[in-house]
Specification:
- With about 260 residues, this protein is an alpha/beta fold.
- The protein has one domain (about 5-255): Metallo-beta-lactamase, Chain A (4-Layer Sandwich).
- The chain is about 25% helix and about 25% strand.
- It has helices spanning about 40-45, 50, 55-60, 70-75, 95, 110-120, 205-210, 215-235, 245-255; strands at about 5-10, 20-30, 30-35, 85-90, 105-110, 135-140, 145, 150, 150-155, 160-165, 175-180, 185-190, 240.
- The chain has a 6-stranded mixed sheet with strand order 1-2-3-4-5-6, sandwiched between helices.
- Strand 7 and strand 8 (about 150) form a beta hairpin.
- The radius of gyration is 17 Å and the shape is globular.
Length: about 260
């Protein structure tokens, strides 16, 4: 049985929401730690212009705080960051993977389509987060089914059931992460929606931002409709995204009880 910690590893100020988070997961299993996405990294906070660049900083609305990085939060929880053995990555946008350099010995788990997109000429990606040349394990399409979604089981020396779930559209290889703990499924859908309101309100301002940032908007909308269907048919599954601060606060407050 694993312990799961909810970490906010990004702060973004946008015209739509002045407090946008980066909801990462830290999984403690026996004597090892696994991260699901990493947020911005320690080096990003120390050398933002060098690693990210002013154009992207201004466009995204980053606000840097060293104490908010995954590595510092792991230390504050009393863990050794060197015990982070694996990082499971939804997609390779910088706000999700800037912290990979803080865990140089960790194996990176990512969908094959996303890695191919990253190594293409797609201008959305910064190459800096993988410049330390980590071990990268990619996952291709298979016949495994998870509640009507294709599922790619994470292959690592762990007991927790964890799957990459293709949720293409935001990027061409964007995935969610489903994991089972205490007989309950958690489904982290990353940037398949920015705010939960997208599930019910097609006219909210955030929808335009999601459209602008999508590699394939039609595919993004198809994915969003599948998530809507899942929420209705399986309310027992806990579904949450990366950037919705209201969702993050629910889990953070719950963990304090």
């Amino acid at each position: 049985m694993a312990n799961i910690y909810h970490l906010n590893c990004v702060k973004i100020v946008s015209p739509i929401n002045a407090n946008v988070c980066g909801h990462c997961l830290l999984i403690e299993e026996k004597n090892k730690l696994i991260l699901v996405d990493t947020g911005v990294g320690l080096l990003d906070t120390q050398k933002p212009l060098e690693r990210i660049g002013k154009k992207l900083i201004d466009m995204v609305g980053y606000r840097f705080d060293e104490s908010q990085t995954a590595i510092r939060q792991i230390e504050n929880l009393g863990f050794d960051p060197k015990k982070v053995t694996d990082c499971i990555i939804s997609h390779l946008d910088n706000d999700h993977v800037g912290g990979l350099a803080d865990f140089p010995d960790a194996t990176i788990h990512v969908g094959i389509e996303e890695f191919e997109n990253f190594t293409s000429d797609n201008q959305r990606y910064l190459k800096t987060p993988l410049s330390h040349n980590p071990i990268i394990k990619t996952y291709k399409k298979n016949a495994c089914d998870w509640f009507g979604f294709e599922a790619r089981r994470i292959i690592a020396d762990i007991e927790t059931e964890i799957f990459l779930i293709p949720l293409f559209g935001h990027t061409l290889g964007h995935c969610g992460v489903a994991l089972k703990n205490h007989n309950k499924w958690l489904f982290y859908i990353a940037d398949a929606y920015y705010m939960r309101v997208e599930l019910t309100d097609n006219n909210h301002l955030v929808n335009e931002l999601a459209k602008m940032r999508a590699d394939d908007n039609e595919l993004r909308l198809s994915t969003l409709n599948k998530i809507r269907k899942l929420t209705k048919e399986h309310p027992e599954i806990e579904i949450f995204s990366y950037h919705d601060i209201k969702e993050f606060k629910i889990y953070k407050n719950r963990s304090k009880k």
